[in-house]
């Protein structure tokens, strides 16, 4: 892509606060964007070939939405965690194995998409985020859901298509969790805590494609209580 095209994009972004340059084969984060650190509210560089996010990302102090889906990122810089206004972070389809240690500093974050990466665990850093609504960790390599998950504040947690064979009973204590997706994992019925049914806020539990028949789930103690929540929620949205 020529400089003149990039310049035109930058001029538009200066006016709109939105910089979108997707599917252009970019191999690096456009350095010229640093001229707009105080303008930009949205950056979308999805469907490129970017391998590194430079430390200067931390300077975009007004950024609300950052999308880098389908790039070649293997790690994220600590500086990303300085984005105090960031509400949406979309990093599907990269090669991320972990999140920066300070990830919990992204205090405004509401939506986090990390589908199709190489995470092997549910990152503990997520538990510090008080405004999370949706967390998508589907299509990773997660094998178990640890005790720390009980502190997660998310409303929806998507763990579809991982390798999960164990789920901590603490997941029942998530204060805001309404939707839990565990489809296509390696769960035996005995490894699914019954307290999810009998004693949680969860009103939609998706567990198709595991190592048990769904009808067996209906025989568990607490299933009636779960169905009450499920039905009440459906009515609300009907």
TrEMBL record:
<dbReference type="Pfam" id="PF13855">
    <property type="entry name" value="LRR_8"/>
</dbReference>
<dbReference type="InterPro" id="IPR001611">
    <property type="entry name" value="Leu-rich_rpt"/>
</dbReference>
<protein>
    <recommendedName>
        <fullName>Leucine-rich repeat-containing protein 57</fullName>
    </recommendedName>
</protein>
<dbReference type="InterPro" id="IPR032675">
    <property type="entry name" value="LRR_dom_sf"/>
</dbReference>
<dbReference type="GO" id="GO:0005737">
    <property type="term" value="C:cytoplasm"/>
</dbReference>
<keyword id="KW-0677">Repeat</keyword>
<keyword id="KW-0433">Leucine-rich repeat</keyword>
<dbReference type="InterPro" id="IPR003591">
    <property type="entry name" value="Leu-rich_rpt_typical-subtyp"/>
</dbReference>
<dbReference type="InterPro" id="IPR050216">
    <property type="entry name" value="LRR_domain-containing"/>
</dbReference>
């Amino acid at each position: 892509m020529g400089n003149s095209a990039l310049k035109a994009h930058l001029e538009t972004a200066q006016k709109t606060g939105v910089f979108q340059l997707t599917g252009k084969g970019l191999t690096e984060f456009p350095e010229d964007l640093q001229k707009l650190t105080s303008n930009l509210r949205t950056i979308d560089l999805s469907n490129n070939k970017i391998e590194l996010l430079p430390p200067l990302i931390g300077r975009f102090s007004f950024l609300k939405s950052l999308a880098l889906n389908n790039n070649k990122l293997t790690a994220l810089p600590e500086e990303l965690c300085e984005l105090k206004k960031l509400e949406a972070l979309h990093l599907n389809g990269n090669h991320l194995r972990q999140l920066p240690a300070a990830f919990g500093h992204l205090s405004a974050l509401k939506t986090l998409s990390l589908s199709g990466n190489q995470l092997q665990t549910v990152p503990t850093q997520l538990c510090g985020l008080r405004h999370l609504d949706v967390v998508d960790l589907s299509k990773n390599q997660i094998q178990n859901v640890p005790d720390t998950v009980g502190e997660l504040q998310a409303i929806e947690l998507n763990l579809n298509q991982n390798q999960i064979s164990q789920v901590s009973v603490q997941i029942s204590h998530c204060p805001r969790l309404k939707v839990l997706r565990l489809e296509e994992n390696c769960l035996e019925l005995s490894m699914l805590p019954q307290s999810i049914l009998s004693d949680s806020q969860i009103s939609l539990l998706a567990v198709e494609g595991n190592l048990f028949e769904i009808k067996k789930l209906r025989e568990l103690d607490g299933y009636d209580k779960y169905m009450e929540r499920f039905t009440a929620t459906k009515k609300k949205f009907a």
